[in-house]
Amino acid sequence: MEYSLLCQSSFIISLHSVKNKLFLFCIMLSLWVYMLYCCVGYCSTMPSFVIDSAGRKMERLEEDPYLKIQSRLPKNGGELDSSLPFIKALSRDLLNNENEVDSRAEEWEEIKGEQRTVEDSTMSGVVNGSETKKLPQAIIIGVKKGGTRALLEFLRVHPDIRAVGAEPHFFDRNYEKGLEWYRDLMPKTLEGQLTMEKTPSYFVTKEVPARIYTMSKDTKLIVVVRDPVTRAISDYTQTRSKKPDIPSFESLTFKNMTAGLIDTTWSALQIGMYARHLERWLEFFPMSQMLFVSGERLISDPAGEMAHVQDFLGLRRVVTDKHFHFNPAKGFPCLKKPESNSKPHCLGKTKGRTHPNINPDVVQRLRDFYKPFNQKFYHMTGHDFGWD
Ligand SMILES: Nc1ncnc2c1ncn2[C@@H]1O[C@H](COP(=O)(O)OS(=O)(=O)O)[C@@H](OP(=O)(O)O)[C@H]1O
């Protein structure tokens, strides 16, 4: 009797432990199946997260306007009907608020390409304890697609200039982080060296002139300008390289295509109204503190344009024609070390993209549209840039 009771209870115990093992095995199996499921990519149907510039987690589908639009686009290569008002409004929204993650990615590509030049100039600088980080005394404030990267890279060759490679976007996107945050981004400089940065969106951002003035009313401001029509096409080409499904340049140009009404709310067109933006800067800075560099001449005569820039910055003319080599395949001047046989260094593939062909009538309409703005700009700056 005692023996049978013992057998029964040991049977119950072993049944219990088998049950536990089975339960554990089931959990392990489902975990393993889930991992396999993820590995083949099905987990992408789960909500995914991106980290925004302020370090906040955002649900991608909710926050990324591009994905929002993508989810509404016809599948299987169907045509995007840009005449639908909601598609057009969304597209413009997307185009005007260029995704920061995208622009950061492009910028990274850009800087990666230029890193060698930076390292070269850093290596040639004397590094000692008297180096400190300073706020910039000169800033390239614009314009987007004007040739700002080329100018910064050409300036970096100068031993009296140290510049931050990435675009800090301090005065437009990161102002709340404070001047110490900004200063910390800057490279160390020796006494007499100039600190510089470039962020092309400053020129068109309303709050920026007052903010730079508050930092220092003596800041020197450089604007690389380019024919506003070519600039707009370049801007569109950049956006399309990341978002191939956007409507055509022609359809985005007009509010109403049949009436031929130009859509000045599209940032690609708005940026080129240089006179309007300049008016805001002149409320804070005298013209003598601003230099306008011709984006066209920066390509056709980089040494000539660099002479003006070095004079404006009060520097010796160190960067001269000896530093440039025109690369016919790229169609642009590239940097070379004088008296050296090393290969010239060209900007990366995001600079000098092939532009799409735009309907000549639309181009002419834009030329007519910009003419009065250009004339006013020539008058304000005292310089005819020859775009008309
Ligand atoms: N030396 C050299 N090499 C390559 N590219 C050159 C050079 N000089 C000026 N450019 C023109 O610069 C245009 C890009 O302008 P940005 O650097 O201001 O663009 S960005 O706003 O920083 O994205 C870029 O525009 P796209 O040709 O439309 O790509 C170039 O035309």
Automatic annotation (TrEMBL):
Q: Which UniProt keywords apply?
A: Disulfide bond, Glycoprotein, Golgi apparatus, Membrane, Signal-anchor, Transferase, Transmembrane, Transmembrane helix
Instruction: Spell out the disulfide connections.
Output: C334-C346
Mode of membrane association: Single-pass type II membrane protein
| UniProt-listed Pfam families | Sulfotransfer_1
- Where is the catalytic site? K145
This protein's record includes keyword Membrane = yes
Q: Quote the cellular component terms of the Gene Ontology held in the record.
A: Golgi membrane
Cross-referenced SUPFAM superfamilies: P-loop containing nucleoside triphosphate hydrolases (SSF52540)
Domain (Sulfotransferase) ranges: 136-376
InterPro entries, per the entry:
NST/OST (IPR037359), P-loop_NTPase (IPR027417), Sulfotransferase_dom (IPR000863)
Under Enzyme Commission nomenclature, its number is 2.8.2.-
Q: Where in the cell is it found?
A: Endomembrane system; Golgi apparatus membrane
Q: Where does 3'-phosphoadenylyl sulfate bind?
A: K145, G146, G147, T148, R149, R226, S234, K351, G352, R353, T354, H355
One GO term in the molecular function aspect is: [heparan sulfate]-glucosamine 3-sulfotransferase activity
Residue spans crossing the bilayer: 21-37
| Principal place of residence | membrane
Is Transmembrane helix tagged as a keyword? yes
Q: Which PANTHER family match?
A: HEPARAN SULFATE SULFOTRANSFERASE, SULFOTRANSFERASE
Q: Which family does it belong to?
A: Belongs to the sulfotransferase 1 family.
- Its name, as the record gives it, is Sulfotransferase
| Protein's gene | hs3st3b1a
